[in-house]
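Hi team,

As requested, here is the filled-out complex form for the zinc ion run. I kept the field names the same as last time so the parser does not choke. Let me know if anything looks off before we queue the next batch.

— J.
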Amino acid sequence: MPIFQDQKGKNISNFQKMIDEKKNTIRKYYDEIGHLYYGQYKDVNVDMTKDINARCESISNLYIEIEDLNVKILRERGLKKCAVCGTENNLSNAFCFKCGARFDDADAVPADVIAPPNASATPSRQDTKQTKIEPAVTPVTAEPVIDASATAEVTDEGKEE
Ligand SMILES: [Zn+2]
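And here is what came back:
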């Protein structure tokens, strides 16, 4: 089997190992926060807020780092996650196949670039702004009210005949 595949597996397990280490560190911080808070509870004169906040901040950063590693693992598998709906997409997708949200990453094959270079020299700035706003879901609200009036017209015509 190709070495390429092997390398991918190695990268993924490396990333996974890093995630596990970060999760352990997070657990350690949670533990310390618990102790610090308890020390504060037992002795009203003790203020551990600074130490507690420092650990909370570290935990937040670790979660971000873990999320980055998860993204890297997905990349190794040729996938990426939609930031809007969380669906896994092919790395080359320019838009989420499920919700239609636009991918702004370098892997996305942007429709703009593919479009012929001469296509309407300068699309107005308003146009580009509008295209960035993604319609969440196309509202489907078709009430058969129009049909009723249509049939009414038909019956009227029928009377005329
Ligand atoms: Zn999506």
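Two things worth flagging: The longest strand covers residues 79-81. The pocket of zinc ion is lined by residues 82, 84-85, 87, 96, 98-99, 101 (CB under 6 Å).

Thanks,
J.
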